[in-house]
Fold this sequence. Notes:
This protein is an alpha/beta fold. The protein is built from 5 helices and 5 strands. It has one domain (10-132): HAD superfamily/HAD-like (Rossmann fold).
Amino acid sequence: MRRLPAQPDVPDVLERLRAAGFPLATLTNSSGDLARAQLEHAGLLELFDHVLSVEEVRRYKPAPEPYLMAAECLGVPPSEMRMVSAHDWDVWGAMRAGCAAAYVARTKVRFMLGRPPDLAGPDLWAVAAAILAVDEPPG
């Protein structure tokens, strides 16, 4: 896990979202140390304001507690935080916790859990374009 590379579109998309004023955080079911090591190996660590782990709330996603903790850490209500994921269970969990969400459909597997989020796309560029069209960065 510590040596997984980023998808090719990820660095440029994250830089674009940061430049637009969006704070960026990761939220993982893994340990915070593992997440930081993986992000550092992929050259992405500096692009994130926060590296968050479910360790802090002792509940795994898709339980609501990790998403609510992330919103609190970012200083926004859950409805003003958008979870972006290529995992439908993660998007579903975030929406159940009251968060906005976006689904990156990198495979042909359709969104299976409940209703799909308001934003979706075949890659991170498409999802980021949709986010930039409808969301305002805080402040």
